[in-house]
Amino acid sequence: MRTSRFLTFAIILFITLSCNSDDNNFSKQDLHGIWEEITYVEEREWFSARAYEFKEDGTYEIRTTARQWDSTVDIGYNSVNRGSYSLVENRLRLTNTEFLRTPEGSTTWYTSLENLVGSDWDREIDITISMKERKSELVMDFPCPPNAACRGPITFYRVWK
After folding, report:
1. In sequence order, what DSSP letters do the residues of 17-57 get, joined into one string?
2. 112-to-46, 72, 77, 87, 116 alpha-carbon distances in Å
3. Is 95 exposed, middle or buried (0-12, 13-18, 19+ CB in 10 A)?
4. pLDDT score, position 24
5. DSSP state, residue 134
6. Which residues contact 147 (CB under 8 A, 6 or more apart)?
7. HSE-up of 95 (CA within 13 Å, CB side)?
8. Check: CATH 2.40.128.280 for 25-160?
9. Taking the CB of residue 8, how many other CB atoms lie within 10 A of it?
10. What is the pLDDT of residue 160?
11. Is pTM, for the whole model, over 0.90?
12. pLDDT tens digits for 9-27?
């Protein structure tokens, strides 16, 4: 009886530990691909999609787009950031070299990619990251200045590798 209880406990412990979905042992190659966070904008009846694309050559592109509720196709762009990235342990450094946004005074939140205008916004940002669910979720914890209303960690889902 005692042996069967121990065996049952050992099996439960093994299953629990082997199904741990957090995976913080990752490399730059694990970032390659497209990661998205999608938020519904109720008053406009469409979705805001923010996609991070990390490329093998060490560059990235961040696209913030509008998407219709019944589609996976973007209907317009709000902004596009481009630059280079590096990864040291769980610290992701983004060095922005290009920032495109909707034109000043625009009456819409989004426009076509060709109508975005360049803006001065060269900056570096260090983001603490982790991966979950067998590296299909990327959790980004952006720095938050004192007394700021920040969102906290944001989960992005892999849509393409």
Report:
1. HHT--B-----HHHH-EEEEEEEEETTTTEEEEEEEEE-TT
2. 16, 16, 6, 32, 7
3. middle
4. 66
5. T
6. none
7. 6
8. yes
9. 10
10. 82
11. no
12. 444 444 444 444 455 678 8
Domain range annotation of the chain: 25-160
Ranges in the chain, pLDDT < 50: 6-21
The pLDDT assigned to 2 comes to 60
Q: Judge contact between 57 and 91, C-beta under 8 A.
A: no
How far apart are alpha carbons 97 and 62 in whole angstroms?
12
Torsion angle, alpha carbons of 29, 30, 34, 35, to 10:
-150
Q: Exposed, middle or buried, 65 (CB in 10 Å: 0-12/13-18/19+)?
A: buried
Q: Which two tokens stand for residue 69?
A: 């509720």
What DSSP state is assigned to residue 105? T
Q: Where would I find the beta strands (DSSP E) of the chain?
A: 33-41, 46-54, 59-68, 74-88, 91-101, 117-119, 123-132, 137-141, 154-160
